[in-house]
Amino acid sequence: MTLRSISELDWRGSGAEPAGSLVIRGARVLDPRSELDAARDVVIREGEIAELAEPGSGAADGAEVIEAEGLTLFPAFFDPHVHLRTPGQEDKEDVETGSRAAAAGGYCGIVGMANTDPPVDTAGDVAALRERAREQAAVPTGFLATVTKGMQGAELSEMVDLAAAGAVGFSDDGLPIANARVMRRALQYQHLVGLPIALHEEDPELSAGGSMHEGEVSAVLGISGVPSVSESVMIARDCALAAYEEARIHVQHLSAFQSVAVIEHAKAYGVEVTCEATPHHLVLTDEAVRSLDSRFKMNPPLRTGADRQSLIEALRTGTIDCIATDHAPHTSNEKEVPFEGAAMGVTGLETAFSVLYTDLVQPGSLELATLIERLGGGAEALGFEAPRIARGAEANLTLCDLEAEWEAGAEGWESRSDNSCFAGRRLNGRVLITVAAGRVAYRQRSFALGVA
Amino acid sequence: MRDLLSIEDLERSDIERIMARAASFAEVGRRDIKKVPALRGRTIVSLFYEASTRTSSSFELAAKRLSADVVSVKSSGSSVDKGESLKDTVATLSAYAPEAIIIRHPHAGAAKLVSEWTEAAVVNAGDGKHEHPSQALLDAYTLLDRFGTIEGADLSDKRIWIVGDVLHSRVARSCALCFRKLGAEVTVCGPPTLIPRGIETALGVEVAHSLDDLGEADVVYALRMQRERMTDTFVPSIREYATAYQIDSRRLGPRQLLMHPGPVNRGIELSPEVIDGPASLITAQVESGLVVRMAILYELLAGGAEPRGAGDTADSELPAPTPIGEPA
Lengths: 452, 328
Prior knowledge:
The complex is a heterodimer.
Chain A: E1 22-31, E2 36-45, E3 48-53, E4 64-67, E5 72-75, E6 77-82, H1 95-104, E7 107-112, H2 123-136, E8 141-145, H3 159-165, E9 169-171, H4 180-193, E10 197-199, H5 204-207, E11 212-213, H6 216-221, E12 225-226, H7 229-245, E13 248-251, H8 257-269, E14 272-277, H9 279-283, H10 305-317, E15 322-323, H11 332-335, H12 352-361, H13 368-381, E16 397-407, E17 426-436, E18 439-443, H14 445-448
Helix pairs in contact in A: 2-3, 4-7, 7-8
Chain B: H1 12-29, E1 43-48, H2 54-65, E2 69-74, H3 86-94, E3 100-105, H4 110-117, E4 121-127, H5 133-147, E5 159-163, H6 170-181, E6 185-189, H7 199-203, E7 206-208, E8 219-222, H8 238-245, E9 257-259, H9 272-275, H10 282-302
Parallel strand pairs in B: 1-2, 1-3, 3-4, 5-6, 5-8, 6-7, 8-9
Helix pairs in contact in B: 1-10, 2-10, 5-6, 5-10
């Protein structure tokens, strides 16, 4: 499968005049994909990285110049898994607010899930969303369509029509595809459409009624548990089906060590499978749920310390290909209720990098370069070229101040919802500027004022 | 203490204090006039989102014995039926400036949430399958009274078996925690499908799957088997469950005490003869419920330690309750 460039996704920059030139001067440029870690002047012209020059030598003919000495420039991030909630749930989020949150988090591209109200399962739905993205999206935004009609898990969506309308792939995320025969047929149809299928893996019989990880904490709280194996048994089933049909699957939000083990085996066996993990599963455990704070309720649930360590190790080795936020905005009405009655999901776009930098990179659990690689890995998993910093590459860049310290949510959120499980946390490392397809998509306010 | 949300939150000294105060209220209960003016003019709201007979009536009577004004709200037939959120209901009721809200709710953590939304002291009368602290305190009182160890609240050297559907039981969780805090050894017993994974370390209890070693127990605490659970195949049949786990006169030894939180399913978890037998503390539990709940309300509203919203400086000594109508 050939990879497409991120700028092919719809956003406000689609079809616009080429952006003016931009020079980012003197930043430490870190891109593990290009094996680059050195101070450079980065010159951007007509959407591309035109020059990577020694500091002080980057040409600045009529270009905007950003003095970035002491700052760090990364290839921008790509999130294969966000919920933009439109159509139907615009009280939680929409394309504009969700993509703005993405830009503020350093993302140059995002892919929205199809579990909207109604779900995205017709060509008309996809066309309408793409139109909306061209009007409103702050960064290139793709949309998945459902695998099954109405996400009912019974009949395949019109996958060929949906692909023709510009869906970038398929997912019933939010729900598993419980029926193995339906799953198999979707994998057979993948050969016609050539697009990725992203899977929310959960055996609904094993997880039924559960609100948190089944373990010691759920035993104390008397909350019905979601056992780890409800995830891994479905991953095993779908890896077996993918192998049999020579199909390719992307497994969403891994949470349990058993799931990591299944993916490891499947990859070793040659199954074409990629997978993702979320920042919250990488830094939190079910201990956080002892507070019964509904901000810690999500699906899959936060699991144990051993599960978390296994995810970090798999992220390091590459068994986990990428980080996805599963950005899931909810209104306060749905969260200000007792834990078991609360909606599942947390926002994540605006805090992902800082949380992972603070909790994984600074303590020495993960190399910064690996983190950057995995934050871009979602692009390849969903059929796009990963952002990189090289001459001639599309200019997808994130400028960060690794010394900056900030409090999550203290200045509000770009997202319409505030159900962040990291709100109030002191975080290190902050995104100052995001460049998507050669345009400045985000500028942190204080940096825009020159006080950073 | 500002609220009673869980046994997990309590210090042993809190439990000792409530036990001692309950004993003094028990003394009042033996007088002709059982009412004391301790909470006169105070408003207590009882908010029940689940059916309850004994807990709600016991709290209501406890509040009345203390001369408080009680407002009872049940979810059916109220604004809750009309879709009002818990937060809005609490805001509405808080506008009456109650000194305490007693809440039962089908979800864990409901009482704790309410305590974040109101100035009133909050009493958890059962939150989902999580905790039922007043039940555990009344059970502890019943045992301490029987063993004559209310002073010091000591259950050490006692072994207590909790038998039945532990998975779905907030009583089991609160009782296990409470008995452990008072020094007892606790074993939970039931079929593997009804024992939560990880409970040994989580609650510091032993797990048994048969009644073979029941003889080691000083106290057998049987849990209510909820018939509605049986539709979900946690056990193959009630008949088989009763065969394996029913406490009957054959299984209950002569020196063993029997407890049950009620209401009992006669012939399922308990055989009829043990319910009414000499070892049964079931009626004593109900009696304890009243004085322990009086002690809880007194502790929260008049027991010193800055009761929230009450704004008065109540005597923090143990009460020398003066029955209304008797000369002081």
